[in-house]
């Protein structure tokens, strides 16, 4: 149901972009109606796109209210066996994990190149 594509530079748009689209299952080659889509141009940092795609591919269940209408009709809704505090703790742990991964990715991208040691150019003082 999900299609991810890196579209290269084209004559119409001077930049490459990521397109993510989710559609209803269709018949044969053609997908059904679009459920949602996302677009990332070249200005979006790669670690943000990577984090989005990692979260999109995560197979763990999504916590929603029992009768929230935010899910797709084919989604199966079951009451959670967890206590409310367990849900809060799991959500907090997941956010902390995502923050840590984002922080690590930023540090890797922003490490400055080592600067060479400055050459010593001062002349020795003249003696009298």
Overview of this protein structure:
- The protein is an alpha+beta fold.
- The protein has 2 helices and 3 strands.
- The chain is flat, with a radius of gyration of 25 Å.
- The N and C termini lie far apart (about 85 Å).
Secondary-structure topology with pairs:
Blueprint: E1 2-7, E2 17-23, E3 34-41, H1 46-57, H2 84-109
Antiparallel strand pairs: 1-2, 2-3
Which regions contain 5 or more consecutive residues with pLDDT less than 50? Answer: none
Biggest sheet architecture? 3 strands, antiparallel
Give me the count of strands. 3
Order of helices and strands: EEEHH
Overall 3D shape:
flat
Mean pLDDT: 78
- Number of helices, where a helix is a run of at least 4 consecutive DSSP H or I residues: 2
Q: Describe the strand arrangement of the main beta sheet, using strand numbers.
A: 1-2-3
**Helix content estimate:** 25-40%
Give the class from helix and strand content and strand pairing: alpha+beta
The share of residues in extended strands comes to 15-25%
Distance, first to last CA? 87 Å
**Radius of gyration of CA atoms, rounded to a whole number:** 25 Å
Short structural summary:
This protein has 128 residues and is of the alpha+beta class. The protein contains two helices and three strands; from the N terminus they run βββαα. The mean pLDDT is 78.
Give a quick set of tags describing it.
3 strands; 3-stranded antiparallel beta sheet; alpha+beta; single chain; 128 residues
């Amino acid at each position: 149901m999900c299609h991810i594509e890196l579209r290269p530079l084209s004559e119409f748009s001077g930049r490459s972009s990521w397109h993510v689209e989710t559609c209803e299952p269709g018949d044969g080659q053609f997908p059904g109606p679009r459920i949602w889509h996302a677009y990332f141009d070249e200005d979006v940092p790669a670690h943000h796109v990577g984090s989005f795609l990692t979260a999109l591919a995560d197979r763990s269940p999504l916590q929603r209210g029992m009768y929230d209408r935010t899910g797709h009709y084919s989604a199966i809704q079951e009451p959670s066996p967890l206590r409310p505090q367990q849900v809060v703790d799991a959500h907090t742990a997941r956010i902390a994990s995502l923050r840590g991964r984002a922080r690590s990715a930023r540090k890797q991208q922003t490490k400055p190149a080592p600067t060479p040691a400055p050459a010593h150019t001062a002349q020795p003082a003249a003696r009298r």
